[in-house]
Amino acid sequence: MLQVKAKKHLGQHFLTDQGIAMDIVGLLSLHGNYNKILEIGPGMGVLTQYLIKNTTYETWAIDIDIESIVYLKKNFPMLENRIIDGDFLRMSSNDLFGKEKFAIIGNFPYNISSVIFFKILEEMRNEVTEIVCMLQKEVAERLASPAGNKDYGILSVFLQAYYDIEYCFTVQEHVFAPPPKVKSGVIRLKRNDRVTLDCDEKLFKRVVKQAFTNRRKTLRNTLKPMNLGPEFTVDAFFDRRAETLSVEEYITLTNSIAKII
Ligand code: SAH
């Protein structure tokens, strides 16, 4: 059988365990009632085959590697023109399904997984109602961590503002060809009901990023470069550290900062 040679710069690690592939596809819960699913980085189609076999969704797949595209077109002729030869990072929701709801699935290229999430958040969060994906384990854990946990970070806050995130299971290195240097984690994200943040979104991002510049320091210290003034930060609230604040608390903080700057 034709094989695609793994290309390191494209983050290619092909999953070889069929049971795990089936379990990943089985995590799709139809949250948000989508009919279409986009697989990012299908590679040799280990997940794609179960999307076709075990689900009734309209499956689309996008890969940047022309060798994968040729392989997929040959092996999954039933997908016809739903195999997209391209870079997910250059797609807009208009290039995809317009305003229609859809889900995303994938064993993401680990080197760009954060960029993929930023893109979904900024450009497609109202269309993408569910995401099931595999990532580097540490990143998966970080994204799914609740406030108060040492793994909770900037992207956790941004993503959890719009998605409820569950850590589903861990995948060992040896079930990939070639094996990655790190363990992997599978997470599921479900779009929550939040329509907007109820605060200046740009300022929210600035506040969260600034707060996390040093996890060990109090907000009073980390927010200093924003020149909020000593009276503003006198409150005991500013004794807290970035990782202890929930999304709601970041929204409240952003609104009170907006009033004084
Ligand atoms: N899903 C397959 C392959 C995972 S490897 C499996 O589990 O075996 C990651 C895949 O993402 C590769 O096929 C790689 O070519 C693809 N990829 C990397 N960067 C991409 C991008 N920007 N857009 C779309 N696909 C990309």
Describe this structure in words.
It is a single chain. By secondary structure, the chain is α/β, with parallel strands linked by helices. The protein folds into two domains: 178 residues, Rossmann fold (3-Layer(aba) Sandwich), CATH 3.40.50; 58 residues, Helicase, Ruva Protein, domain 3. Helix content is 32%, strand content 19%. It has nine helices and nine strands. The chain has a seven-stranded mixed beta sheet, with helices on both faces. A two-stranded antiparallel sheet has the order 1-8. Helix 4 packs parallel to helix 6 and helix 7 crosses helix 9. The structure holds S-adenosyl-L-homocysteine (SAH). S-adenosyl-L-homocysteine binds next to strand 1 and strand 3. The site of S-adenosyl-L-homocysteine (SAH) has 24 residues, from strand 1 and strand 3.
